[in-house]
Amino acid sequence: MSNEASSAKVPVTVLTGYLGAGKTTLLNRILSEPHGKKYAVIVNEFGEIGIDNDLVVGADEEVFEMNNGCICCTVRGDLVRILGGLMRRKGKFDAIIVETTGLADPAPVAQTFFIDDNVGRKTKLDAVVTVADAKWLNERLKDAPEAKNQIAFADVILINKTDLVSREELGEIEARIRGINPYAKVHKTERAKIPLDEVLGRNAFDLDRILDLEPEFLENDGHDHDHHHHDHGHGDDHDHGPGRAHRRGLKHYHDEEMRSVSLRSDKPLDPDKFFPWVQDLVQKEGLNILRCKGILSFKGDDRRFVFQGVHMILDGDHQRPWNEDEKRDSRIVFIGRNLPEEKIRQGFEGCVA
Fold first, then answer.
1. What pTM was computed for the model?
2. pLDDT grade for 45, boundaries at 50, 70 and 90
3. Are residues 236 and 189 in the same domain?
4. Residues 6+ apart with CB under 8 A from 125
5. Phi and psi torsions of 43, nearest 5°
6. What angle in degrees, to the nearest 10, is found between the helix axes of 107-115 and 145-153?
7. DSSP state of 14
8. What angle do CA 225, 226, 230 make, to 5 degrees?
């Protein structure tokens, strides 16, 4: 994946979250604010986003143009066709946003960008953004698998409507989210007020930037590689500032069904062991693994290797050289359903050089 080629591609943000969580507010801001950019928003149905007719300049059956230069169109069943149509329009888009209301799982949309060659040539997946309703999410995470899918899959999570819950409730929601997804960037918002560059242009799927965006992913949150995953934060929360005080509570929300398995090794790995192991794992468990990300230190290799996956699709590449003062350890997070944690841990430990 050469950077020259990918920089010319139009970034696509997949926006997910329940109706009523605040996606509509966010989409309307993108479509109406004078941000000077040209965005295309792809939605299931226009009715849901309640576009104000005063903002609409011209409309054909599937496409509405806004007077700030953005356009809005409906999927009507075929994302690939719509993306193709957008790419043929005059003028370049700064970004495309695909809204996935009603789809329980953003994975099929995300996979389109890896699987379909025509789509992949002109566009690239930028990030999966989930908007969650602070009040509602706590209940849904107890019972709704799709709510967990949306959290597990996200690169960026907006906990919206924070004004409707107490600080304690908010802390609890954040702990639940972290228990499922340790590397997403979490923002707390009211009325989906957030700088658009926190949502768009994240480049979370660009392997070169995986860890610039998620430095916490590299922090050792107290789960040492030889400790069991339940031992979150051994009283080391004071290093993390006030926002992290809830880390200790994570084990309280240990979700057996949807969970993350974090692996770490300070010994270099053998690539001839690691690659066959990880390929085999995603082939067998791919339907259950929603996302995985990792940064690896291979024996005799002075460059960091980064990889990430969506279900069975893995993408990996050498990144920059390790810095002098950097700790050369390998870290991986798998997020999924009913993952065989012990088997994954043993397999990973078997990859040490």
1. 0.77
2. low
3. no
4. 11, 12, 14, 110, 113, 114, 205
5. -120, 165
6. 40
7. E
8. 80
H or E element, residue 307: strand 303-310
Residues 259 and 168 in one domain: no
Report if residue 210 sits inside a domain: no
Q: Please state, in angstroms and rounded to a whole number, the distance separating the CA atoms of residues 16 and 22.
A: 10
**Cβ neighbours of 320 (radius 10 Å):** 10
Cβ–Cβ < 8 Å for 204, 155: yes
Contact 103, 16 (CB under 8 A): yes
| Residue range(s) defining the domain that contains residue 312 | 215-349
Tokens of 234: 């051994």
Tokens of 120: 């992949």
- CA 183 to CA 211: how far, in whole Å? 9
State the CATH number of the domain containing residue 98: 3.40.50.300
CB-CB contact of 248 with 235 (8 Å): yes
Confidence of residue 271 (pLDDT cuts 50, 70, 90): very high
